[in-house]
Every structure is written in C-alpha cells, then in structure tokens.
Amino acid sequence: MRLAGDSGILRKEQEMWESTDKSLQEAFQDLNALMSKAKEMVMLAEKMRQKLLSGPTTQPGANDEEMGSKQEMQDWMLSVGIASPVTKESAGALYHQQLSRLLADFVKIPLEKAGGMINLIDIYCLFNRARGTELISPEDLLQACSIWEKFDVPVMLRKFNSGVMVIQNKSHTDEEVFARIKSLALKPDALKTGLSASDAAMTLGIAPAMAKEHLLTAESKGFLCRDVSADGFQFYINFFHEIDPSDLYFVKDYGIYDTWVKAALASW
Are 162 and 212 in contact (CB under 8 A)? Predict the structure, then answer.
C-alpha cells in the first residue's frame, strides 16, 4: 500500500522514532554492561597495585622482559585511577589526614619511576588525573603533604633554597646523590667542560629541573663550583680547598687538583 499525504509522513516519523528508541535501548544496555565491567576492572587494578607496592622492587634473577612488564603494569594502573577517592563530604574534619595517607600510598609508584624525587606540581597533575571528577585544590595537596611528618610514611615534602618543592623518599639521601654527582664531575670530560643539569639528569635518572636543584645544593655544600655563561650553568668539581694560598702553582701528586691538571694537560 503506497504511503501518501499526511498519513504517510506520520508513518515514516513513527518508524524513525521506533528505530531510534531501539538503538538507544541497545546502547544503554551496552553502557550498563561496560560500567559493571569497569567497576570490576578498577577493583582488580587496585588489588594488583597493592600487590606491586607490597612486593620487592627488584627480584634476583629478574630479566629485562620481566622488569619491562612490571613497568607497563605500573603505567597502566596509574591510568586506571583511584577506586575510592577521599572527599570532604565523606571524611569531614579528618579530610586532610585521610588525604595525606592516600597521597602517601599513591606517590610510591611515581617516585619509583622518577628516581626517588618528583616535583610537587607533577604529583598534583597525576593525582588529580587519577581522581577523575573528585579534584583537589593546590592548597589541599600542600596541606596533606605537610602533615606527613606526623605519620609513619616513607615519603616527605622538601623545599629547596630556590623555593622549588618536591616529594621524595626518605631513603633518598643527599649524601648518596652527592657521591654520584662527584663521581660524574671527576670524569675527564666533566673536568674540562663542566657538568650541566642535563648531564646530571641522565646519570641520576631524574628530570633536569630536579638535577639542577641537586647541583645547586652540592654547590652550597662546597662540593661543586658554578660557571654561568650564555650557554647556561656549568658545574665543576671544587678543588680550591686543596690549593696552598702561599704557593698557588704547587700541585701535589694526588687529589682532585692533580686530576684536573692532568685532564687539562691531556686536552692541549
């Protein structure tokens, strides 16, 4: 039977709405199934994250493939997010205390990836991304980190002389970092041309901005000297304490000054 006139138009619209309604019902059924599965996956990811955090970071005999798989798993779990984020509505007066404990647990994997120290701004971005829509303010983050000293947690908030604030593991000591920087600064190339923040970052396995803060701290402790030029900051090993003021040209057969002189003569 041919469709014509007003009845034909109404019939076509009715068929279109029925088709749309059917498509929406199917879509929402798929969405509900996806949401239920997503909840199960988040719970599974949380269990796996806790297992990784409780287990040793390295195991004897672990090969590169196993370590690579672990790294991929850590990256994937960071993207999944936090299953039950602490909110002001749920925690009330204990909000910052509970947020502090949650944050101390969250930063373990990013700190491991960053070499034991990470910028506070980077943690703010990672943490808010993991919380989804339950975002926190910079003030809440700073206050939560500031009360770590009251709890028995393996991380701490640190502020450098330049004002840069970072989160670091308590086991990440300056003495260990200074020893690695000194070893790097004593290499022949570094003795001749100096040490940049990028060079230190590659050795320490951290960001150049963090490496620069370590170099400046080492300078304040007397381990390094700074040279500022159009190319930026270059740091050299400090051997001035080995020079005799009464005989500036006398070089002993040992020490850092002797190592520097030999490296300089070798380049001529």
Answer: no
The answer to whether position 65 is within a domain reads no
Rg (CA), the chain: 29
Whether 168 and 155 have beta carbons less than 8 Å apart is answered as yes
φ, ψ of residue 245 in degrees (nearest 5): -60, -30
The model's pLDDT over 59-110, given as tens digits with 9 standing for 90+, comes to: 555 555 555 555 555 555 555 555 556 666 666 778 888 888 889 888 888 8
Number of domains in the chain: 2
Say how far apart CA 257 and CA 236 lie, in whole Å.
12
Q: Is residue 23 part of a domain?
A: no
Q: Are 237 and 182 in contact (CB under 8 A)?
A: yes
Domain boundary among 148, 170, 192: 170
DSSP string, 177-191: HHHHHHHHHTSHHHH
Q: How many CB atoms lie within 10 A of CB 67?
A: 13
Partners of 236 in beta bridges? 225
The total of other beta-carbon atoms located within 10 Å of residue 244's CB is: 11
143: Cβ–Cβ under 8 A, 6 or more apart, which residues?
96
> How far is residue 234's CA from residue 199's CA, in Å, rounded to a whole number?
10
Contact 119, 209 (CB under 8 A): yes
202 in the same domain as 222: yes
What is the three-class DSSP state of 168?
A: strand
Alpha carbons 144 and 137: distance in angstroms, whole number = 11
pTM over 0.85: no
Q: How far apart are CA 51 and CA 32, in angstroms?
A: 29
CA distances in angstroms from 197 to 82, 159, 232, 238, 241, listed in the order given: 34, 19, 9, 17, 24
191-205: pLDDT as tens digits: 888 888 888 888 887
